[in-house]
Amino acid sequence: MKRREFISLLGGAAAAWPRAARAQQGSGVRTIGILASQPLPPIQRFARKLRDYGYIEGQNLRLVSRFAEGRDDRYPAMAAELAALPVDLIVTWGTPAALAAKQATRTIPVVMGSIGDPVSVGIVSSLARPDGNITGFAAQNVDLEGKRLELLKDFLPHLSRVGILANSGNPLFDVSLQRLRPAAEQLRVAVDVFDIQGSGGIEAALLGLDRSHPDGVLVAPDLVLLSQRRQIAAALANSKLPAVYPFREYIDAGGLIIHGANLGVLFERAAGYVDRILKGAKPADLPVQLATEFELIINLKTASIIGVTIPPTLIARADEVIE
Known about the structure:
Low-confidence stretches: 1-26
């Protein structure tokens, strides 16, 4: 599906929503708000999965999207817009979006399609009993940071210094870094952070990586970074810096290795939670579930460009290999 068509499918004309939502409340049409950075494939899979539960766009379902396009500062206003329509339920992707939804409403149910660690950032009190109006699915990105570092070490035995391309504006980053440092110490790898929030933004951070030239790079699981995936992957390839990325979407941008939760599966599972809540279940009674399916993708074309050799043992572990 083309990007413009999908935005039209999910968005529609903003000015028409309040009147349309009021008219539909008595007609059996359920309105679901989507709060995310971009209309990427996991969101599309969520929309398609809803059909399996009997929710048909244009018949008994209306999807209202708000995409921040890599601007986390937009989330509070967008969440407030969705709450004011009102929508029957809000689906979020990422920590900043979920925090904005939590601040915007205590009554409208919120389902997190994917989030790193909702407990550590204070969105829910516990995974088993989330309380309040929020539940959903966690991608375990905080715990996976150590795994990504191990992957770098597996094919770069000489790895002694790693650069982290990060967005300190994301509340999850501090938690991730705290979890990563013990793994780095155990592997005897020094960690340098290159933060896009500093003076000069992402361009300065990428330039800093090029000049510092660590042995390898970890790209933090952050949707602001994901929105700039082509610039990031191209810059790291030009700098001959091998990197491990957290999201599948980096592969199409030329990323070398991707390791993370299968977010498409998470969003399909989120559609099931949406169905249960719309049929009367309370978010507080639905535990936050952890990702159970993960993917390792290796791009041999990028490996050739960078000039690194991926060991056959690592290729054998991959779920997908790009020749």
